[in-house]
Write a structure and sequence with these properties.
InterPro entries: Methyltransf_11, SAM-dependent_MTases_sf. With 282 residues, this protein is of the alpha/beta class. It is built from ten helices and eight strands. It has one domain: Rossmann fold (3-Layer(aba) Sandwich), CATH 3.40.50.150. An eight-stranded mixed β-sheet has the order 1-4-3-2-5-6-8-7, sandwiched between helices. Helix 8 crosses helix 10. The chain is globular. The protein starts with a strand and ends with a strand. Bound molecules: S-adenosylmethionine.
């Protein structure tokens, strides 16, 4: 069952690329989170239901539906293009007990108070406006004793592209300052712990780890970074062109820096991306 709405966000234009490119990095991380949540409060226990808040293309939903096909799952995102991708996947895969709906996480008004037993949110609150409001809404919709499973990036500038981008820009314009992409209050492990406790969550547990991001060659990374429409990358490009600088000039320098940092002998690239997982109870 689905509820479609109309909403356009800066995430719409990455929706088709997201699953293949970013999914390769986030699927193993999300799988670890789903397993951790299940070990703590079983996803196949009586009365269990799940919500994937800021679901994107539905990576957590896919994991839940593959492992627990009868678990009722609600997926929400404020990008209608993302919800369209999830619904396409749901139809193709024949998921039952599944709903997806366009909804802003800052106001989950169509989700009943204390109705969700297992609430997931991956790589959303670190990038979204008003993360405190989002966390407060998640606390509202979670049942007493329900569990939150959360994943965020663990560096204010994501990490993987940061040094290559800034060093490449500085070769052309030493005074350039890249804008910070994420709110440190919702990425650094101790801040995440504090933020969840402040919102009323208890039994907060945190894991800070790294995932390797592997690319076929530098061209693939560069195409994603410059042409992929990821809102974070776009913010950096805009901060560069607003200074009258050219993307065409910085691009080869950026590629060289990436190869220096991550290049492998077979032409592929491989580098670490730090992330933080949390589980917490209401
Ligand atoms: C980096 S993607 C993560 C998607 C997915 N959770 C995953 O792990 O692959 C961030 C998602 O959060 C969504 N998002 C950002 N702010 C939101 C908000 N206020 N309400 C609902 N969705 C939001 C975006 O549309 C995007 O799909």
């Amino acid at each position: 069952m689905s509820t479609r709405g109309k909403n356009h966000s800066e995430w719409d234009s990455i929706s088709t690329l997201y699953h293949t490119v970013v999914g390769q990095l986030t699927i193993p991380i999300a799988a670890g989170l789903v397993d951790w949540v299940h070990e703590t409060v079983p996803l196949n226990g009586p009365g269990a239901n799940a919500m994937d808040n800021g679901c994107g293309t539905g990576i957590v939903c896919s994991l839940l539906k593959s492992n627990y096909p009868t678990l009722p799952v609600l997926a929400t995102d404020f990008s209608s293009a993302m919800i369209d991708e999830v619904l396409r996947n749901a139809e193709e895969s024949g998921w039952k007990h599944f709903q997806a709906r366009v909804l802003d996480s800052r106001n989950l008004d169509s989700v009943e108070t204390e109705s969700v037993t297992h609430l997931f949110t991956t790589f959303m609150i670190c990038l979204a406006p008003d993360p405190d409001q989002i966390v407060s809404e998640m606390h509202r919709v979670l049942q007493q004793n329900g569990i939150l499973g959360l994943a965020v990036w663990a560096r204010p500038n994501f990490g993987f592209f940061e040094a290559a981008w800034i060093e490449a820009c500085h070769e052309l314009d030493p005074t350039y300052e890249a804008p910070t992409l994420m709110d440190p209050e919702w990425i650094e492990p101790e801040n995440v712990r504090r933020g969840l406790a402040k919102a009323g969550f208890k039994s907060v547990e945190i894991k800070a780890e790294q995932q390797s991001w592997d690319w076929e060659n530098v061209n693939a990374v560069s195409t994603y970074f410059f042409d992929g429409h990821n809102p974070g990358n776009t913010k950096w490009h805009d901060s560069w062109t607003e200074r009258g600088q050219s993307i065409d000039k910085v691009r080869p320098l950026f590629e060289r820096k990436l190869e220096e940092a991550y290049g492998q002998s077979d032409g592929s690239l491989k580098g670490p991306v730090p992330f933080c997982l949390a589980i917490a109870r209401k």
